[in-house]
Amino acid sequence: MAALIWLIVGILLVVAEVLSGDFVLVMLGAAALAAAGVSALGAGELVSVLVFAVTSLGLIVGARPVLKKRLQLGSGIKMHHEALLGSRAVALTPVDEHSGQVKIGGDTWSARTLDGSVIEAGEAVTVVEISGATAVVIAAV
C-alpha cells in the first residue's frame, strides 16, 4: 500500500513539474518513485522516508543545478529581448535621445538613441540595448 502511495505522489509531482518548469518537483517526484521502489521491495516506512529524503536532497543539490545550467546554455537560442540586440530596425518617426518609434521585425517599439543623435524617419538603425519597453538604437552603418 505504501509503495502505491509513493508511486502516486511521484507521478503527480512529475506531472506538476510540467507546469512549474523549475526542476524541483521533478526531483521530488523522482525521489518519491525511488521510495516507492524500496517500499515495493519490502522496506519499512522509515526506510522509505529516508530514501525519499536522501534522494530528494541529492537530486536538488546535485543534479538540479547541473540540469538548469545545461538547459540554459545548451540551446544557444537567445530569448526575449536578448534576441533583439544587434538586429536591424527602421525608424518610423524621428528618433532622438528622448523619444521616437522604430519597427523591429513586425513590431513597433518606442525608441531613443544611445548617443543623443537624431535619426530621421525611414533610416535604418541597429538595436544596441533594450531598456524596459524602449529600444535603444544607433544609426546603422
Content-based structural category: alpha+beta
The overall strand count is 5
The secondary-structure element order is HHHEEEEE
Number of helices: 3
Oligomer: single chain
In this structure, how is the largest beta sheet organized?
A: 5 strands, mixed, barrel
What spatial order of strands do you see in the largest sheet?
A: 1-2-3-5-4
Task: Write a structural description.
- A hairpin with a 2-residue loop joins strand 4 and strand 5.
- The mean pLDDT is 87.
- 21% of the residues are buried.
- The longest helix is centred in the middle third of the chain and has 30 residues, at 45-74.
- The chain has 141 residues and is an alpha+beta fold.
- 46% of the residues lie in helices and 21% in strands.
Write the layout of secondary structure elements.
Layout: H1 2-20, H2 25-40, H3 45-74, E1 88-91, E2 101-104, E3 107-113, E4 124-131, E5 134-139
Parallel strand pairs: 3-5
Antiparallel strand pairs: 1-2, 1-4, 2-3, 4-5
Helix pairs in contact: 1-2, 2-3
Tell me briefly what this model is.
The chain has helices at 2-20, 25-40, 45-74; strands at 88-91, 101-104, 107-113, 124-131, 134-139. The chain is α+β, with helices and mostly antiparallel strands and 141 residues long.
Characteristic terms for this protein:
141 residues; five-stranded mixed beta barrel
